[in-house]
User: Fold Aromatic amino acid beta-eliminating lyase/threonine aldolase from Wallemia mellicola.
Amino acid sequence: MSVCQQLENIARDFRCKPNPLKKHTNTPKLTLSPLPFTDGMLSYAFKASRGDDVYEEDDSTNEFQAKFAELTGKQDALFCISGTMANQIGLRTNLQQPPHSVICDSRAHIYRFEAGGVAYHSQAQVIPVTPSNGHHLTLEDIQKAAVIDENIHYATTRVIALENATGGLIYPQEEIKRISEWAHANGLLMHLDGARLWNVHIATGLSVKELCEPFDSVSVCLSKGLGAPIGSVLVGSKSFIKKATWFRKLFGGGVRQCGFVVAAADYALQHNLPLIERSHQLAKRLSIGLENAGVKILSPVESSMVFYDPTSLGVSSQEFNTRAKAAGITLRPGRIVLHFQNTDDAIDKLVAVAESFSKQH
Assistant:
């Protein structure tokens, strides 16, 4: 079985199996998101304004959106409850009317994990493309799949939606620029699912503004990696965000007094962003330890994700996960996402689990 097929199977497991993590405990779990509402974050959030964001009267939200627009180099920003909502509003705003299509990576969140939202909300066909290099879509991959003429038999491509990072893999910025230049020359719009853009910023040293520049719209998650309890932000031009605000209301995403959660996100942005580098270091250390113990690592570890296959130890994933749980570590099948609150002790314990199987065989 090829590595691509193994990753496809892992994605299928994510769709079919419930999350086994029910609550935060004192055990060193490796798949938990950062613990929301740290003491400092909670104190900061209590100072938030209490205005009505639906009427654009909440100072904390307005200031945060303005800060985000400046950070990303876009004209305006819109706070959304979730990354899925931000992506779906962004795509719907970019699309005028059917028939139209959206090109994306076959592993993309908007294609696999957003409940068919592009078809439902935007009446658009998704054209999933598998990267020929096994890492990221190239301009040539996209050119082969894009429909840029007016042939009535096809849904004309209107948007190219990229994801950075994709499955923990960092998209080369120069390739993104190539795609963007070609797209704009052919009248296509560019959307970025930047749920893990903070990881890309830390890994590459490129500014968030540089990473967003090739795109017409960008969604950025505030909880993944950064550690806010809730929310994502959608950025784009003034006219784009004005239209997106209508769709946010239509989708049921207008929140009245959201200053409290926005302030928590603001705290996370100010205090947690530099800490993300630790999650990358932990992921690299974990992958090396697992590989040395005989676990197959399925893809390069370029940020905070480790994709692994324990069957190389001669045991099933269930057996591996059961022994890990006995050591106080709860795992999802095939993927481990590290964050800055994980401990060195948790890494050592999981590597020890892998080594215990190695000694048996």
Observations:
- Confidence is low (pLDDT under 50) at residues 10-29.
- The domain at 3-34+274-360 is CATH 3.90.1150.10 (Aspartate Aminotransferase, domain 1).
